[in-house]
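User:
I study polymers; will you set down one protein's sequence and backbone structure tokens?

Assistant:
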Amino acid sequence: MPEVLTFDSVQSLVTNNHSLIFQINKEEKLNPIKQDVKSGRLRYVKNIFPHHGYIWNYGALPQTWENPKEKFPETGTAGDNDPLDVCEIGHKIQERGSVIQVKVLGTLLLIDEGETDWKIIAIDVSDPLASKLNGENLQLSATYEWFRYYKKPDGKPENTVHWNGECKGRDFALEIVEDANKQWHRLVSNSREASGGSISCANTTLSGSSDTIREEEAETTVNQKPALGPAAPVDQEAKEIIENVLSASIRENDSSIPNPPKTSGGTGFPAMVSSSLVGEQVL
């Protein structure tokens, strides 16, 4: 059962790009990590005070797949066609693309636009708290708020967090990981049948896969990628998001600055005021 975490989107509260949305590109050969694009525009997480961008290290468990043809019995919703998402709650800010070993602690079930979207709660095994945590008594109010409301500024309805936001424990979460791993094996053994060919499963190490390629072909694919250039220009809306995230950070540390009544962008969605800190209290 995999417990190694590949980060596809690590967001730092001390940089000006912690609102960027990065994802594993399922369609492209060898599945590179890229900033997500929708309707031709780069995507950013909008700020809902007091949460500033991502509030944990956010990534995905490799060798897992939420099968869109399989429904979770309790909700009747099918998988979102992605790897399992992971919220890593340790102290260290991980670099994007880093691979770390994690201890699974529990899981939330998000119903995101009608799809099953499990959020595995985990901690870096090298974190000082890892040995002390066993998945019990996790205070996840900030995480619950974040997932419930983060799409509201885009004019979308609130997400549903099943079981009223209850975090299921480690044993239950590991069952979800194990099932997603089985679904992944189905995918890579015959990707055309499992996904209709919409997911690239090209790899160099899986002997039972219908999409295994030679290392030379993989190297050629990587070498054909253009060299990294300067960062793409950030549109005005994204600049406002980032600036507001930073100003909210300043406001939180200066009680003389009043909290704004609304979020950025003139959406009319009131700011979420919470007693919880950015991130989670785990003890």
Observations:
- The two ends are 27 Å apart (CA to CA).
- Residues 170-189 form the longest helix (20 residues).
- Helices lie at 141-149, 170-189, 191-195, 215-223, 236-252.
